[in-house]
Amino acid sequence: MNIPADLKFTKDHEWIKIEGDIATVGITEFAQGELGDIVYVDVDTLDDSVERDEVFGSVEAVKTVSDLLMPLSGEVIEFNEALEDAPEMVNKDAFGDGWMIKIKIADASQIEELLDAEGYKNLIEG
Fold this sequence. Notes:
Blueprint: E1 8-9, E2 14-19, E3 22-27, H1 29-35, E4 38-42, E5 49-50, E6 55-61, E7 65-69, E8 74-79, H2 82-85, H3 89-92, E9 101-105, H4 117-125
Antiparallel strand pairs: 1-2, 2-3, 3-9, 4-6, 5-8, 6-7, 8-9
C-alpha cells in the first residue's frame, strides 16, 4: 500500500500535504479502499473557518456515507471542483488528483500532532 513519506496523516485516514501555511487534504488509499467506489464528494465549508476534528464535508460511496474531519484548524480556501464531475478520482489517485480541499492553517502547532508515514502504517496494520 502506498503511504507517501512526505505527507502527514490522521487517525481518521486523511492525508495532509503541508506547503508553508497551506495544507492540501484528501483521504488515504486505505480509506478509499475501505469505502469502495466513491460516487459523490460534498464539501459545503468553502470560505469557512473550521476547527480541527469538526466535519468539513462528506464522501459518499456505493455502500456508505462517511464524514470528512478537519485535520487542522483553519479556513477552507479551495475545493477540488473536478470531483463534482469525477468523484472516482479519489479511488484512482487518492494522493494526487483526488485531493479534496486546501486550507489556510490557523495553528501550525497542531501539525506536530499528526502521524508521519510510519505512524500511519502502524495504525492501519494494527
